[in-house]
Design a protein that fits this description.
17 helices; Aspartate Aminotransferase, domain 2; single chain; alpha/beta
Length: 479
């Protein structure tokens, strides 16, 4: 076959492309017509490539700098997991393909559920939720369905005063009233306050362990007993599972429902708004309420089963975000049981090392061993110079580090929340410590340097509140 290419021009038109003509132009109102061609830039390919390469160098991620965001677990994602998700047999598989053509995928997902059950001490899992927050919402729908099936009208969900913001938001979205429970002087749930808060309206307590202050809830079994004796459930927010994965299991602590942030614990992409996944595990008595579809094993065959009569239904279009879940399975398979345990141990070791090295200038908010993260505050001397946590965070940018989480949890004054994860070397941790001590010295000698930081970044100090509330969503070509 001979291929013929005809040159297209404004005068001649193109082969088989009709000229819109003046009739079509007349349909466009005069005020919407351009008086002149747009002033588009004329650039060479090389200039364009260099422009976007320069922009990429301004971007910060775990593959470019130390990224110690507390409570977020910004860990390095092995490229092998990415390669596994891109295998043609997985990447090109249509979600509507019949089960007979999906046996490899279904087997992988079923085995992932079994591994999650083993890690979390649960009896059943669903992979359907497509984000950690949606996993929370799904878990709370399960709480509601469980109580309704028992003809038990419960309307309240308890959350610690140090909880992630998604906890009360998810509870409210699921139709519950939210009540806060105070922390004690050790940074744990105040048992007396919990006992006073629990009542016949209590549906569940949402809690992560280690908690959001990076501290292990040492009285977790007593907490579970308080909830269970009142007929309520104990819900595990899996945000901090990376600290205990392979070492301790939420199910053994008394938790009834758990959601897992695979992007925080099992090395799948994190940030940018997605894609994500938030599997939810439950004890046996809650399993009938899990959403559809469920993956079941029938001998050597796997199938997608529809909802049971008590199921909450579907929480997504399909059975979960398979590409993300493949990454999580590859990560678990690569590490094995012993490797998963080492991850948690190294994460805790890294956090405790940093907390000890920084204590002179940035003491921990609680005088006790942390787990995978810790909450520190600038010393009284630094605060006495008028330097705030935000100033320290901005100055860290000049030093080549992404700042840690700041001002959270809100129950700690001028909080700096640091989570190094297990993937950083001692040399990198030492460099971060050195930078923090330099900043502390600058705070004492030249505090204005911190208050005007960052000085070396592409964008200087901005009014972040104004930027969030008064978004500029247009681009000025004249700039």
């Amino acid at each position: 076959m001979e291929l013929v290419f005809e040159k297209h021009s404004a005068a001649s038109g193109a082969a088989n492309v009709p000229d819109p003509g003046p009739e079509a132009e007349a349909l466009v109102p005069p005020e919407l017509r351009r008086a002149a061609p747009p002033a588009l830039p004329e650039l060479s390919e090389l200039d364009v490539v260099r422009h976007y390469l320069a922009l990429s160098r301004r971007q910060v991620g775990v593959d470019s700098v130390f990224y110690p965001l507390g409570s977020c677990t910004m860990k390095y994602n092995p490229k092998l997991c990415e390669e596994a998700a891109r295998l043609p047999g997985f990447a090109r598989l249509h979600p509507h393909a019949p089960d007979e053509l999906c046996q490899g995928m279904l087997a992988l997902l079923w085995n992932l559920e079994q591994r999650l059950c083993e890690i979390c001490g649960m009896d059943a899992f669903t992979l359907a939720p497509m984000a950690g927050a949606q996993g929370e919402w799904t878990g709370l729908l399960l709480v509601r369905a469980y109580h309704r099936a028992r003809n038990d009208a419960r309307t309240e969900v308890l959350v610690p005063d140090s909880a992630h913001g998604t906890n009360p938001a998810s509870a409210a979205m699921a139709g519950f009233e939210v009540r806060a429970v105070a922390s004690n002087d050790d940074g744990e749930v105040d048992l007396a306050a919990l006992r006073n808060a629990v009542g016949p309206k209590t549906a569940a307590l949402m809690l992560t362990n280690p908690n959001t202050l990076g501290l292990f809830e040492t009285r977790i079994r007593e907490i579970a007993a308080v909830l269970h004796q009142a007929g309520a459930l104990l819900y595990y927010d899996g945000a901090n599972l990376n600290a205990i994965c392979g070492v301790a299991r939420p199910g053994d602590m008394g938790f009834d429902i758990v959601h897992v942030n695979v992007h925080k614990t099992f090395a799948t992409p994190h940030g940018g708004g997605g894609p994500g996944a938030g599997p939810v595990g439950v004890k046996a008595r809650i399993a009938p309420f899990l959403p559809a579809p469920r993956i079941v094993r029938e001998g050597e065959r796997f199938a997608r089963a529809e909802a049971s009569p008590q199921s909450i239904g579907r929480v997504g279009a399909f059975g979960g975000n398979a590409g993300i879940l493949i990454r999580a399975y590859a990560y678990l398979a690569m590490l094995g049981r012993e490797g998963v345990t080492r991850v948690a141990q190294h994460a805790v070791l890294a956090a405790r090392y940093l907390a000890a090295r920084l204590a002179s200038d940035f003491p921990s908010a609680y005088d006790r061993p942390c787990m995978h993260e810790f909450v520190a505050t600038p010393s009284a001397a630094i605060l006495g110079k008028g330097v705030k946590t935000l100033d320290i965070a901005k100055r860290l940018i000049d030093c080549g580090f992404h700042p840690p989480t700041v001002y959270f949890p809100m129950i700690v004054h001028e909080a700096l929340m640091v989570e190094p994860t297990e993937t950083e070397t001692k040399e990198r941790l030492d460099a971060f410590v050195a930078a923090m001590h330099v900043i502390a010295a600058e705070a004492m000698a030249t505090p204005e340097k911190l208050k005007t930081a960052p000085q070396n970044a592409p964008v200087g100090r901005v009014d972040e509140v104004k930027a969030a509330r008064e978004l500029v969503l247009t681009y000025d070509m004249a700039r």
